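A common beginner's mistake is to predict each chain separately and then try to dock the pieces by hand. The better habit, illustrated here, is to supply every component at once so that their relative placement is modeled jointly.
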Amino acid sequence: MKYVFTVFAMIFAVFLYTSSSLNKTAIAFDGKTYKDAFEQLDLFADVLARVNNDYVVDINNTELISEAINGMLLSLDPHSSYISPKEYKNLLISTSGEYSGLGMEVTLDEGFVKVISPIDDTPAKKAGIKPGDFIIEINDESIFGLSLSEAVDLMRGKPGELVNITIARNNDERIQFNLKREIIKRKIVTYSIKEGIGYIRISQFNENAYQELSKAISSLEKEMFGSVPGLILDLRGNPGGLLDQSIKVSSAFLDGGKVVSTKGRKESDNRNYNADKGELLKEVPIIILIDEGSASASEIVAGAIQDRKRGLIVGMKSFGKGSVQSIIPLKGGAEGAIKLTTQRYYTPSGKSIQGKGITPNILIGYFPEDLKKKERKKEADLPNTLPIETGEHQAESEEIIPIDYPPNGFKVDSDYQLKRSVEILKSETYADKLDSST
Amino acid sequence: MYLLIKSSILKITSIILAAIFFTLWCPYLVAKAQISNNSQTLKKLELFADIFYQIRENYVDEIDDALLIQSALNSALNSLDPHSGYSSASDFIEQKKREKREYGGLGIEVSLENEVIKVNHAIKDGPAYMAGIRTGDMITSVGGNPVKGKTLAKAVEGMRGDPGDPIKLIILKPDDTKTELTVIRQVVRGRAVRHRIESGYGYVYIETFNNSELTEDLIDALNSITQGLNGDLPGLIIDLRGNRGGLLEQSIKVSSLFLNGGEVLSAKGKKPQDTQRYHAEHGELFPDTPIVILINSGSASAAEIVAGALQDRGRAVIVGRRSFGKGSVQSVIPLSEDNGALKITTQRYYTPSGKSIQSRGIMPDVLVARTPDTGEIKKRLREYNLPNSLSNKDDTNFKEVYEEIIYPNDDWNTSDDFQLHKAIQVLSLKKYHEIIEKNMNIGNLN
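With all components supplied together, the output reads:
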C-alpha cells in the first residue's frame, strides 16, 4: 500500500508544479504541511480498518463517517456545521423568499423545538403562540427526538391545510392549536410613530431588509409631513442574517466611509466594506435599541453607527457574535454544504465584536433588576466558542456603567427601554451623550 | 451571516487541483480500510476528505490537522456505543498511568464532614500513617489551601500528584490539638477489600476490581475472618454493590477462589474464532460454606462476571437488585507511532450458562430493596439507558418484577443496611439450598 502512496504523491507533485507555474502568487502549497495532512487522513483510514475488522458487530461505514464529519466541524466552534442536502435546500428558501407554513422562528433547545418568536401577521402569531413555547406534538405525534429540520418539514407543506400543534408553556401547561398553513411572506421591517418619534423595527437581516427599511423610512416621512424629528431603530432580538444587508442598512444612515471590515486567516481575504455616498435621514438623531438577543448583522449596524458617532446605542450589551460563516456548497449542493467560520469582523474603529458584543452608550434594562434571572445566553457562554481577541484595540478598561432598570411597579410589557429612548431623543441628553461618546 | 465564497479564478483553480488530490486519495483509503461495501463508503469518504480540505484552507484560524482528525475519530467512535472512543497519544499515556494507579498519594481514605476532611482510614505504613496521621484525624488545610468551602473532590485535588513531592497538611487531632505535617507523596495502592464479621458470618466488601493485588488481599481478608471465627466459616457475604468493575483477570481469579474448576466466563466477538473461554483452577477455598453475593444497579462489568459465574454454577445466591448490565469487552488498540490508541468494543461477555450480560445484567435470586417502598419508582441508570448502547436480543428475565421485590417496612431505620440484613437471613435458611439446586438445574439444562 505504501506504493500507492508514492504514486499519489507523485501526481500531487505534478499538481504542485503546474499550479505554481500558473501563478506565483497563488496559494503557496507547502509540501510538508500537506504531508502531515495525508498522514492524518491515513490515520483515519487506519482506524476505519480496525473498526471494520474488530468491532463486535457489523458497522455502517457511511454513518460512521457522517459522525466523523459532524465531530470535526463541531470541534471548531458553535457555528460551524455540516448541512445535509435537504437542509441546504431549506436554507436557500429561508434566506430568499416565501414558503408555506405557520410563521414562526424555531430553534432546538436541549432536544426540544422551541419557538423563538412568531412572525407578525402569520397563523402562529394570530393564534397566540408565544416566544419560549415548546412544540411537543405535530398532528398528535410526538416530535421528541426529531431534528430541527425534520420538525420544520412537518409544519411546512401545502397552504390551506390544517396542522395540529401541541405546545408546552411554562413547563406544564399544554395547549392545542389548530393552524392553517399560509404563504408566509417574511415582513421583517415594521414601523410606527411613538410620541412624535419615528420607530422602525428590523427583525432579521434577510435579503429584503434594506428595501423594506427604505420603504418604511419614506412612509414615515410621508406620515410625519416630511420631518422626522428623531428615529429609533429597534434591533432587539434580531439574530442577524446577511452581511451585505447589514452594510446596506448601515449605509442608509452614513454618508460614505467605513462600516465594517472582515479578516480571515490570509491577509488576501481581508476586506473593508464602506457605505455608499448619501444618507436617508441626514441630521436626524438616531437611537439604536439593542439587547442580549441582538447578534451578528445587528451588531455590525450598531457598531458602525456607534463608532461613526452617527447615533446612540441604547439598551443592553449585545450577544457578541463577531464571526462570519460562509456556506460552502459541496458538489454544487448535491452533497449538501458546510457552514464554516471563515472571518471575524471589526467595527470601523477596529474593535472585534467576538465574545464581547457592543456595549450601549446608555444601558437600560427591559426587566426590573430582580427579574434579571432571565438572562439570556451570550456568545461567550457557548461551549467551544472562538476566543476573545486581546490586542491593542481591546486595551480599554472594563468600566462599569450603571444600568437604568425600570422602577418598581413598572409594567414590563410597556417597554421601558423604548419609553426611555423616546425621552432621551426629546431631551438634551442625546446631544450630550453623543458628544462625549468615544 | 452567509457570505458565499468568492475567489479569483486562479485561486479556484488551485483549490480544485488540491481538492482533486484529496479526492484521489479516497480509493486508497477505502482499500486500506479493507471496506467491502465500496461505492457508498467511497462517496462518503470523498465528502470527508473534501470537508477536511475546506476546513484546512478556509477556516478563520489555522487548525492543527491532528486535532481535526482526533475530533472526527472521537465523534465517530463515540457513536458506536458509550464505551468506544479514541485517545490521543498524551491521553493514552495518562490512561495507562491511571489504570496502573501510578499516581502519588498519601494512603488515606477520606470523607468531607463539617467542612473538614475526615480520615476514615490511614493505610498502615502508607505515607500519611508514617507521618503520624491516624484514623479519625481531621485535615483542615492541604498544601496551604484551607479545606473550608470546597467540595471533597476539590479539597483532595492537592493530595494527588507526582510521587516524591512533599505536601503540607494541617491536622486536627481528636483531642483538638492542631499540628502541621509534611507528607511525601508515594505511589500507594488503595485498600482493595474491607472485611468484618457480621452476625457470625464473614463479610467482605470489594469496592473495585481495578487492583492487581485484589485476590491476594481477599485471601488475607478471608484468613483473618476465619481466625476471628476460630477457624470456622459458617457463611460468607461478598458485597459487590456499587462495584463498577475493573480488571477482567481479577474477576476470573476471584471467581476461581470459590469454584473447583469449570467455566467462569466466555467472551465472544464478531467472528467465531474470537471466542475466548475462561476457566477456574481446580481446588476451592471453602467448598462447604454458603455464599451470598450482594449486588445493585451500580454493580457492573467484572462485578457482574463474578456474580454471574457463582450464580450459574450454583455456588452462591445473589441478593439485591438487578445489576448494571455492562457485558461488553473493550480492546485498547494502540495505533502506529504517536497516534494514540483506539478503544472499541470487541466482545460480549457470557455467563457459564451462555447468557449475555450486556444490557440485561444479573438478576438476583432474591430481589431486595434498600429503602422502604414509597410508591415512587426511582430511576436507576443502567447500561440500557445509555445512548446507543449495544442491545441484547435475549430479554428473558429482564425486568425486575415489582411484586417480587422485598422492601423494608416503613419503620425500618434506613441507616441500617436492609439488603445485608436479608443476605444474612438467606444464609441461614433452607431456602438457600433450594435456590442453589434450582440454579444448578438451570445450569445443567443449558
